[in-house]
Amino acid sequence: MARFWTIPIFGIATVYFTVDALFSAVTGPIAAWLSKKRLLERVRRWVTSLGPDQSFALFAVPVVILEPAKPLSAYTGHFLPGAIVFIAAEVLKLTVVERLFHLSKKKLLSIPLFAWGYGYWRRMMDYLESTAAWRTSRRMLSEALELIGNLKSRLQSQFRSAGARRLK
After folding, report:
1. What is the rounded CA–CA span in Å between residue 100 and residue 44?
2. How far apart are CA 54 and CA 104, in angstroms?
3. Contact yes or no for 102/35 (Cβ under 8 A)
4. What region, left, alpha or beta, does residue 78 occupy, with left being phi > 0 and alpha being psi -120 to 50 degrees?
């Protein structure tokens, strides 16, 4: 009977981690940008001064608050508000959690259960990233982002040339 549940659970986990990874393509640059802001220097110093247990508690807060918002967003009864809640929760969670993990990684990995969970998650992600479906989705995302960038460049050049014509 346990084998019966393996495939659906693996399928759900694959979809979940794929969505997280796709959103990470957006949140990664946001987290990098935030890490360079002087305004957050005091917060950064405070986070890095915490011990392992406090770091874990701080790391868990956005996960505990924002993770349930994603499946609950399906129960709004309306597509657009549900999608907005899902996207906002995902972007906030990934941005905050990624930044906190980066700042506290050594301390978090000093907690044996966290280190075990992270190792398990890393092995699952390594396997998932080695699949053809993953590579295809990453390629499609990359192509879509390149297409958007090209469209943005063309629109900007058209607006510049239209503005220059008006000035003449």
Report:
1. 9
2. 10
3. yes
4. beta
In Å, what is the CA distance from 157 to each residue of 80, 150, 160? 32, 11, 5
Give me the pLDDT at residue 105, please.
92
126 CB neighbour count, 10 Å cutoff: 9
- Nearest residue to 56 (alpha-carbon basis) of 119, 99, 100: 100
Q: What is the pLDDT of residue 7?
A: 66
> DSSP letter at 73?
G
Nearest CA-CA partner of 24 in 71, 93, 108:
93
**Structure tokens belonging to residue 151:** 């469209």
Place of tokens 């090209």: 150
The answer to whether 85 touches 101, Cβ cutoff 8 Å, is no
What span, in angstroms and rounded, lies between the C-alpha atoms of 142 and 95?
20
This prediction has a pTM of: 0.63
Helix axes 112-129, 132-167, angle to 10 degrees: 80
Neighbours of 158 (CB within 10 A): 10
Question: Across the 168 residues of the chain, what is the mean pLDDT of every consecutive 10-residue run?
Answer: 63 69 72 75 87 92 84 78 82 82 91 93 84 79 83 83 63
Rounded to a whole number of angstroms, the distance between the first and last alpha carbons of the chain is 77
